[in-house]
Amino acid sequence: MILQLTDKNIDEAIRSAITVLKNGGIVAYPTETFYALGVKYDIEPALKRLYEIKQRPKEKAMPLIIGRVEQLPLLTNCISDSAKELMTKFWPGPLTILFNARCGLSGYITSGGKAAVRVPGESFALELAKTAEFPITATSANISGMPPADSASMITDYFDDAVDLIIDGGRTKGGLPSTIVYAAEGKIKIVRKGAADIQSNLI
To answer: pLDDT digit string (tens) for 132-164?
Structure first.
């Protein structure tokens, strides 16, 4: 199903997406850069299906988005002062932070005991995460190794009808992916350089 996004139906689109997510479905939605594929973070069959349609290597964890910092305890028990400083400066925005994953999280959304999380920049993705109030996967809408989708047509080309709902917000602007960092006490390690320039903010 494809739902064309307009200025007048954003609330309806968000409600539809959340219903699909809660029922274990896969939603494609626009972020501030490309389209992402979302499932609810704690529904194991949905996570498994998402890996399968993307043909994604199992050792690569799925990045997650949340709508507000208060949702972080669902994913981690430890938020360092370094991470708090970065969150204050760069969230919402293109900075993904690796946290020590909370015990019991699915192996599909963790790697090496870490969970990758961000609050996305101004976009449908941010409004969806705010309203859902649970973490949502935000892996790029593509077959692993292929270019990320910047349109609904690319998503259907990649996945045919394997995605339960596509929120069609038109062509996204693309650009650099999010910067990925690991922030422990007193130290920040850049794992992947991207759209957020944190060089001058290293502690």
So the answer is: 999 999 999 999 999 999 999 999 999 999 999
List the CATH number of the domain containing 109: 3.90.870.10
Q: Determine the pLDDT at residue 57.
A: 80
Distances (CA, A) of 62 to 9, 171, 192: 29, 23, 15
Joined tokens for residue 168: 């069609």
DSSP class of residue 149 equals: P
Give residue 81's domain range.
Answer: 2-201
| Cα–Cα nearest to 26, from 14, 8, 11, 39 | 39
Domain count for the chain, please give it. Answer: 1
62: its two tokens: 């799925």
Relative to beta strand 165-168, strand 2-4 is parallel
List the one residue out of 65, 60, 56 whose CA is nearest residue 30. Answer: 65
For 16-32, how does the pLDDT look when each residue is reduced to its tens digit (9 = 90+)?
999 999 999 999 999 99
pTM: 0.94
Three-class DSSP category at 69: helix
Structure tokens at 91: 């969230």
CA neighbours within 13 Å on the CB side: how many for 41?
A: 27
